[in-house]
Amino acid sequence: MSADRESLEAWLREHPEARDDLADLLRLRELYQSACPPEPDEAAWNAVRLHLGEALGRGRSPRRWWALAAGTAAAALLAVLLMRSAWSPFRLSPPLQGGGKAEGETVQGVKRPFPVAEPEDVTIVSMDARDVAALVVGEPPVGGDLQFARPEDIRVIRCERCPHSGRSARLEQGDEVLMFVTAAAIAPPEDD
Amino acid sequence: MATLTAPCPHSASDEQLLACFAAGHRQALDELFRRYRQPAYRVAYRLLGHEADALDAVQEGFIKALTHLHSFQGRSSFKTWLLRVVSNAALDLGRQRHRRDAVSLDASPHKDLPDARLLTADETGRQLERDDLRRQLDRALDCLSEVQRQTFVLFADGGLSYREIAEVMHTSVGTVMSRLFYARRKLRNYLNERGSL
Lengths: 192, 197
Description:
The structure holds two protein chains of two kinds.
Chain A: H1 3-14, H2 19-34, H3 42-60, H4 62-87, H5 89-92, E1 169-173, E2 178-182, H6 183-186
Antiparallel strand pairs in A: 1-2
Chain B: H1 14-22, H2 26-48, H3 51-67, H4 69-72, H5 78-97, H6 102-105, H7 121-141, H8 146-156, H9 162-168, H10 173-193
C-alpha cells in the first residue's frame, strides 16, 4: 500500500462520514473515464509529433547551441572592435615611438584603421544641427588635432539637383547653422 | 540523470528516456510522446472542449516540458510534470480563445463515431448514448471554477493522485481534497438535475 493510500485510509478512519463522499468521487471518476474524449486520428498525432520534433530540434541541438554561442561571441568581439576603430583614431593616430612595428601597424607606424565603411557606403540623410560639431568628414586615419569648420567658413557656390533622386535642395538658415533642405521637405502640401 | 549511449529501448524508464532525449536520441522523444500523448490530450480536451485546441495545448505542453527540464529536476514523475505544463497551457489557451462549447460548435455532434455502416444497431445506440453522456459531462465541467476544473480533470482524466495534483498546483493535499469535494458536489448536482445519472 502506498504512503498516499495509507495516509488517506488513516484520514478516513478519523472522518468516517467522508467515506460516502470518496466513494461517490471515485464513481464520478469512473464515469468520466468511461466517456473519454474522442481520440484524434493518427494523421493529427503525426502532425503534432512532426511540429514537436522541429520545435525541439531547433532549440536543443548541442551543435546549434554552440554555433549560436560562438556567433554571439564573435558578434560581441566585432562590436568592440568597431567601437574601438570608430573612436580610437584620435588617440592612436600619432606615430608610435620606437623602431619596432606592433601588430596592426602600417609602415608609417600608424595604426591601420578598422574598415567600417567606405565613404561611398555612407549617405547622411539628415541630422540634427546640434550634432554637426560631432560630424567628422575626411579620409581616415585622421591625424593631429581636428579643426571644425565654422558656419562663416563655408560658402555655398552652387546647389545641384541630385542625379539619383532628382530632388533639388536649397540652403536655409537653421537655429545655429546653415542647413540644406531638400525640395521634398520644403514642397508645399498638395491640395486634395 | 543517467546517461545512455545505446539506443533507448521501448522498455526504458522515463528517466532513461529523458537522458536519451538530452543526448539527442530521436527515438526517446517518440517513445515519450507515445506514452503520454493520450493522458495529456484527455486533460487538455476536458479543459478546452475542442480537439484542435487540445492538440495545440498538447504540442505546446510537450515543447515547454522538454525545453524546461532543468525546472523539472526529477522531483516528481515526468507524467506529473508534463500534465502540469499541459494543463496550464490549456488554461492559458482557453483564456485566450474562451473555452469553446464542444457541443454547440461541433459541426457534427457525432463526428467521433465510427462509420455507422460498420456498426450494428445496438452498437450504434450505445455509441450515441456514450457520446451524449460525454457531452453532458463536458458541459457539467463548465459549472466548476477554473481551479476546481483543473483539479478534477487532473484527478479523473490525468489519473493523478492527491499528492501529485498538489505538486502540480503548488498547494496542499488538504486543499486538493477540498477542491475535489466541492467539484464532486457541483458535478453531481448538475448531472442529477439533468437526469444524466
